[in-house]
Amino acid sequence: MDRLTIDFETYYDSEYSLTGLSYPEYILHPVFQVVGVSVSKNGDTPDSFTGSHARTKEWLKQYDWENSLCVAHNAHFDAAIMAWVFDIYPAKYFCTMQASRPYVSPYSRSVSLDACTSHYGIGVKGKEVLNAKGIRREAFSDEQMTQYMLYCDNDVKITDKLYCVLTDDECMPVDERDIVSLTIRKYVNAQLMADEEYYLEEIEAHKENNKKIIEESGISKSVLGSNPQFAKELEKRGIPAPKKISPTTGKETFALAKSDAPFKAIMYGSGEEVRKLCEARLAVKSTQTETRLRRFISIASVTGGLFPCALSYWAAKTGRFGGTDKTNLQNMKRGGALRKGLVAPDGYAVVAGDLSQIKARVTAALAGQWDLVSEFKAGEDVYSSFASILYDKPINKDEHPNERFIGKTCILGLGYGMGVNRFSEQLASMGHEVTPEFAELAVQTYRKSYSKIRALWYEYNNVLDAMIAGQEVRFGPITTGKDCINLPNGMKLIYHKLSKDKSTGNYTYMYAGKLEYIYGAKLVENVVQALARIIITRAELTLAEYGMYACLSVHDELVFVIEHGLVDKSKRAIEIVMNKAPPWLKELPVACEVLSGSNYAECK
Fold it and tell me: Cα 217 from chain centroid?
């Protein structure tokens, strides 16, 4: 098919810009205006146009978009303009910004068009957009518009060059290009709806709940919101305020945020009074829930209720998806308000297929831990099985939920070298305080019970050595290269400037200009995440080939919107596809759970 590379230039000003607005809020705003657009066909000299909305739409229609590949550097933005403003839907999409991440992010903090073209030495991005702030299309002089359209043409030229570099020089696999396309499709072809009324009710309920929590603590908002004063309240109760080194300033500061593990350990491990005090602190400091609910409402209000699902391709070092466009859909609490408010349109249901324990299963299969693999394959409750070993008595899900939860945390968390202190902190952050002695017992019992998994950590030190030496060695489904791991789907995990300190034995590498530490067990985790991601994306591609397009992908889960009459048939199709073991790890016992409901939360 033809390749049509496009770039839009749009109006923005100090108050109305993408700095504070999501793409739907920006594009569907009454102030929105296309100043100009440029298109190149199959790498030819770009052609640009500026004019009214009607004339721009007529100009765009000269191209056969429905049978072409649309290329843009920020395809979420440009494709959304095409779809929501001009009712144009290309056959496929390719985003050079998204697709650059596996290849450019290891070396650069940015994947902007400027950063990518500089990285590959394929052009220089202009600065004319900075001079267009606050200028409506009609206010441009002829000379200004000429220069602006030349700037737009240049963006298209270097975007098209970047596409060629990524697909030819970097040899990006076709499957991965298709995943990029499906990522953009999820956004511009929104299928889920956002229940605005429900979200508004949740905001009020959230406010009332926080008010109650603060009042019950008996501490004023000013004290709860102040780090030094809150620290004094902890010290009054015999608890030293936890501290950390700030990654921003490099100086010691209080570790009193929701994300700080020591704070969570205090909150859940120091008794009822301290727990309530910490909850009140979070009620004062945390505005994230309300902010996110309001963002979801705002987006739905401009789309007529539809909710475009924005995902970032290869957001993590291991290729996992991330959130983008100010919504972060990879971080929605299971059963929480955000999920409950994402609903199916009338006559449809939300259907979600989730790969059960996929990372733990991949770890066991990679290590050749066949007893654990056999338990997974037989459908046994491996969490209860391990808990039975740990507690030296029979454990089952119904009668021993706490003990089974500990077993689950061990199976899912101890496969990558987690130590006693970190394990204790993790349990405490989830409301399960254990003694240091028990934490030590749990860690050592796991390592003894699954000795082949532990051995895999040390084998992966050999993987690191082979990467440093530039040796091509096969380790199961992966092979090593110079400072990289070659994955079975043709992609790479890059560890730029990987080296080993001979005096300490520590391995380090550079990522986005920052020094990172790596070790065998951590590398196992990286590889497992990358392989699990290949499994879920391959399933998505297969289902798309049969016309089943996922509306959302969250970690190891694919989400669909299905007509009521086709739900049972679709669930069976999802089960068949997602239960298939990959050819590069045939021993893997893949299992998939498929559930449906009227909203996303009901699929759990």
Answer: 36
Q: Dihedral, CA atoms, 95, 97, 101, 102, nearest 10 degrees?
A: 40
DSSP-derived 3-state class of residue 94? strand
Please state the pTM of the whole predicted model: 0.93
DSSP H helical ranges for 401-519: 401-413, 420-429, 436-449, 451-469
pLDDT over threshold 90, residue 79: yes
pLDDT digits (tens, 9 = 90+) for 237-286: 999 988 888 877 888 899 888 878 788 888 877 888 888 999 999 999 88
The token pair at 556 is 């190891």
Yes or no: say if 321 and 330 are a contact pair by the CB < 8 Å rule: yes
Burial annotation 485-515 (CB, 10 A radius, 16+ → b, else e): bbbbbebbbbbeebeeeeeeeebebbbeeee
What does the alpha-carbon distance between residue 113 and residue 566 come to, in Å, rounded to a whole number? 43
Q: If you count them, how many residues does the chain have?
A: 604
Cα separation, 592 vs 604, in Å, equals 13
DSSP class of 46: P
Among 53, 56, 55, CA closest to 6 = 56
Where does residue 92 fall: left (phi above 0), alpha (psi -120 to 50 degrees), or beta otherwise? Answer: beta
The candidate with the shortest Cα–Cα distance to 180, out of 480, 501, 537, is 537
